[in-house]
Amino acid sequence: MALEAIKLSGRHVELVPLAHEHHDGLAKAVQDGNLWQLWYTGVPAPEAMSAHIDRCLGLQATGAMLPFAVFDRASESVVGMTTYMNIDPAGPRVEIGSTWYAKRAQQTPLNTEAKLLLLSHAFDSLDCLAVEFRTHFLNHQSRRAIERLGAKLDGILRQHMRMRDGTLRDTCVYSIIPSEWPAVRSNLEWQLEKPR
Known about the structure:
This protein has helices at residues 23-31, 49-62, 109-125, 140-149, 181-193; strands at 8-9, 13-17, 65-72, 77-88, 93-101, 130-136, 152-162, 168-176. It is α+β, with helices and mostly antiparallel strands and 196 residues long.
């Protein structure tokens, strides 16, 4: 299974294959909330965005990642990034990760719909055995968001990786499997339809 670049569109969000032309929008989006200053994430600083895009496109060329720029359809602006990563074509199995949004886009229908689009494509088009989510043990906001999706905690990888500041990260690994997907999809669709 080689993942082909694809555009995924909904009412609130459009996920488009990452390209260098998204640099300025991403550099501006990351400044909304100073996201790179959160020590428990790997969000690139504005001046590191070009190198980050190069890295993601390099991983895409090897088949290990499929990165997307996230567009807010209401403002017609780039508000973040997300990826399929750690792609295992034999499964197939993917992780949805390296996701970040400008502060203004966090905890909005945009994120909910982006996850719905990515999960729908993974299960309904790619026939994945599982979709994973990974986050820092101490990133409580991310953990709550993953749990709200309906993903189950598979376990914690202790001292899984070294962070930029030298600290060791314990990584929480979550997943959704095909038998859980119908309920997860219904929940995400309900969240998008309920009054705000």
